[in-house]
Every structure is written in structure tokens, then in C-alpha cells.
């Protein structure tokens, strides 16, 4: 594969340069924002003057909405974050969103960050890894009670002020406030503790993780049932109960997401993409893509590149 055909995973600086080229006019964005960025959504969204096709980020992303709404596709699922909600996109996850609708009057905070820079010592690292918020593939949309949302907003205001005035020169202060924010969110994001620890929930998470790793060469439900040491029938029942989707739909939606990233970010031919995804009949790949997206792969590529 040619170097130009490799999938891009954007850091914050590269992402804003490509999709929001005028964002550097925002005075609250520090020179070191590729490591950690916090900015007001109402100050950032106006720079989103076109849609962002399926792509990936090197950093984790958090949207905290205090008014209005934000729409985003994470993986194959659409989400609408409204007042008093948090939307979390882990690094490496495929996401996309449409051109910002100024009539939404959305406000809140956008945070992009590296877990490494904020985790600090081993104890704090455990907080991040065990958090329901920072544990893909958990539910990325979290609703907050009014009191929790108010406190979370105060913490983000403090982080914003500190970062705006001093950048990362006093990282321990930012880290302390940010960990407090994460812990506050954890209280709201933890569903029934027994449910979270159940074998069924673990099975769902393990299945989704395996699909993301092996979808190019494993496309049968039986493949994943074998890896999980269960029957295909049991896997189907659990997936339908807890996600309202069959294993087959999860597999092919993941495959189509990979195709969309390749179509947008590379110059590979449709045939090459089909072969790379382990589909050796390009005509079948085109039919499959159209079934899920409503348009052909070539039409998707042409539309996504009209910027």
C-alpha cells in the first residue's frame, strides 16, 4: 500500500488545521493545545463550516453541553447531546458530524486530551482506566442531574481559566480539577453496579472489542462465538437484549465504518478497499455499502470530499 493510502488518525492540531482552519483565531487556544485543549463550544463551533466525514482522533474528546445541543455520530450510532449531558469519544474511535447549525445556540465546553498527560501517577491512571466514562465501549452519552451538572461546569470553568492563563505550566492544578470532574461524572454514569459487573455486559464489551480488532478477516457470528467460548445462539440473544442489534449488524456496521474512513482518507480504489476489508467480490461490497448508507462507495467519497 502506498504511503498516501494509509488511514490518518488526527491529533488536535492536525484536526483543527484540516477541518477548522480559522480556529487559531480563537485567543483561548494555547500553543500547546495538541496535548490538551479546553475551549468554549460557542467559541469553537462557528469554525465548523462544513461536515466532518468519518475519521479518528489521537486524543480523547469530551463535549459538555450547558445549553442547546450537539449532534455526532460515534461508530455507527447517532447521538444528540443536550443541556446537562456529556458526550465522550475515546481516542481511535470513528466519529463524524454535520456542519454546525448556528440556530442551536449551543454552549458548554470542548475538551481534547491525552490520557497519559492527565493520568499522572499510577493511582490516577487506575481512576482513568476503571472509570465508566473512559472505558470504551461504554455508553458515550451521559445525562447529569442538575446539581452534578452545575458542579461539573464550575470545575471546567476553573480548568479553562487556568489553561487560558498559564497553559500547561501548572499541569498538577489542571489534573486535579480534571480528575474531580471525571469522578463527578462517574457518579452519574454508573448504572446498576450489579448490571455493570454482570457476565452479559462483559460479553457485550468483549464482543465489540473483538469485532473492532478482527472485522477484516472474521465476519461470521460463529467466528466471534468461538473466540468468546459460547454458542452463536447465546451471543445473539445477549447482543439483542442489551444493544437491540444482532451480532451480524454489529459486524457489518463496523465494516462499513472502516470503509467510510478509507474512502475519505485514502486514494485507494473501490476494489482495493473491498479486498483490504476482506471482501473479495467488489460488486458485493458495493451492494453492502449501499444497503447500509443508501449510496454507493464512490458517491460517498465524492460527497465527503466536497469541502
How would you summarize this macromolecular structure in one to three sentences?
With 307 residues, this protein is α+β, with helices and mostly antiparallel strands. The protein contains 14 helices and 10 strands. The chain folds into 2 domains: 3-190, Regulatory protein AraC (Jelly Rolls); 199-304, Arc Repressor Mutant, subunit A (Orthogonal Bundle).
In words, what does this structure look like?
The chain has a five-stranded mixed sheet. It has a five-stranded antiparallel sheet with strand order 2-9-4-7-10. Strand 5 and strand 6 (77-82) form a beta hairpin. It is built from 14 helices and ten strands. Helix content is 50%, strand content 17%. It has helices spanning 12-19, 41-44, 115-119, 122-130, 146-166, 171-189, 193-196, 199-214, 221-228, 232-243, 247-265, 270-276, 282-293, 297-304, and strands spanning 9-10, 36-40, 52-57, 60-67, 69-74, 77-82, 85-89, 95-97, 107-113, 141-143. The longest helix is centred in the middle third of the chain and has 21 residues, at 146-166. Residues 1-5 and 192-196 have low confidence and may be disordered. The chain has two domains: 3-190, Jelly Rolls (Sandwich), CATH 2.60.120; 199-304, Arc Repressor Mutant, subunit A, CATH 1.10.10.60. It is globular, with a radius of gyration of 20 Å. The protein is an alpha+beta fold and 307 residues long.
Strand order of the largest sheet: 1-3-8-5-6
CATH topology of the largest domain: Jelly Rolls
Mean pLDDT: 81
Q: Would you identify the regions where 5 or more consecutive residues have pLDDT less than 50?
A: 1-5, 192-196
- CATH class membership of the largest domain: Mainly Beta
What count of helical segments does DSSP give? Answer: 14
Helix percent band: 40-55%
Q: What's the Cα radius of gyration?
A: 20 Å
Secondary structure: number of strands: 10
CATH architecture of the largest domain: Sandwich
- Find the CATH superfamily of the largest domain: Regulatory protein AraC
The major β-sheet equals: 5 strands, mixed
Helix-strand pattern: EHEHEEEEEEEHHEHHHHHHHHHH
Distance between the termini: 26 Å
Report the principal-axis shape: globular
Strand content: 15-25%
User: How many separate structural domains?
Assistant: 2
Class from helix and strand fractions = alpha+beta
Amino acid at each position: 500500500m502506498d504511503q498516501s493510502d494509509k488511514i490518518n488518525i488526527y491529533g488536535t492540531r492536525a484536526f483543527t488545521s484540516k477541518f477548522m482552519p480559522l480556529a487559531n483565531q480563537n485567543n483561548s487556544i494555547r500553543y500547546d493545545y495538541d496535548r490538551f485543549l479546553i475551549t468554549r463550544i460557542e467559541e469553537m463551533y462557528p469554525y465548523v463550516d462544513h461536515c466532518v466525514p468519518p475519521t479518528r482522533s489521537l486524543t480523547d474528546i469530551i463535549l459538555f453541553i450547558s445549553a442547546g445541543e450537539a449532534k455526532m455520530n460515534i461508530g455507527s450510532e447517532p447521538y444528540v447531546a443536550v443541556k446537562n449531558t456529556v458526550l465522550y469519544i475515546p481516542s481511535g474511535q470513528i466519529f463524524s458530524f454535520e456542519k454546525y447549525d448556528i440556530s442551536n445556540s449551543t454552549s458548554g465546553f470542548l475538551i481534547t486530551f491525552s490520557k497519559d498527560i492527565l493520568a499522572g501517577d499510577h493511582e490516577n491512571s487506575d481512576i482513568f482506566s476503571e472509570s465508566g466514562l473512559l472505558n470504551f465501549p461504554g455508553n458515550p452519552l451521559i445525562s447529569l442531574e442538575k446539581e452534578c451538572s452545575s458542579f461539573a461546569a464550575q470545575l471546567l470553568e476553573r480548568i479553562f481559566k487556568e489553561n487560558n492563563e498559564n497553559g500547561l505550566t501548572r499541569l498538577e492544578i489542571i489534573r486535579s480539577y480534571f480528575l474531580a470532574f471525571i469522578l463527578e461524572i462517574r457518579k452519574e454514569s454508573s448504572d446498576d453496579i450489579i448490571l455493570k459487573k454482570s457476565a452479559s455486559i462483559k460479553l457485550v464489551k468483549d464482543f465489540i472489542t473483538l469485532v473492532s480488532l478482527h472485522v477484516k478477516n472474521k465476519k461470521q457470528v460463529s467466528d466471534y462465538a468461538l473466540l468468546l467460548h459460547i454458542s452463536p445462539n447465546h451471543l445473539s440473544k445477549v447482543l439483542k437484549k442489551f444493544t437491540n442489534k444482532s451480532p451480524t449488524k454489529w459486524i457489518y456496521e463496523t465494516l462499513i465504518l472502516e470503509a467510510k474512513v478509507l474512502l475519505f482518507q485514502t486514494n485507494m480504489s473501490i476494489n482495493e478497499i473491498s479486498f483490504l476489508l476482506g471482501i473479495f467480490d467488489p460488486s458485493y461490497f458495493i451492494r453492502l455499502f449501499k444497503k447500509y448508507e443508501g449510496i454507493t462507495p464512490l458517491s460517498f467519497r465524492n460527497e465527503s470530499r466536497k469541502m
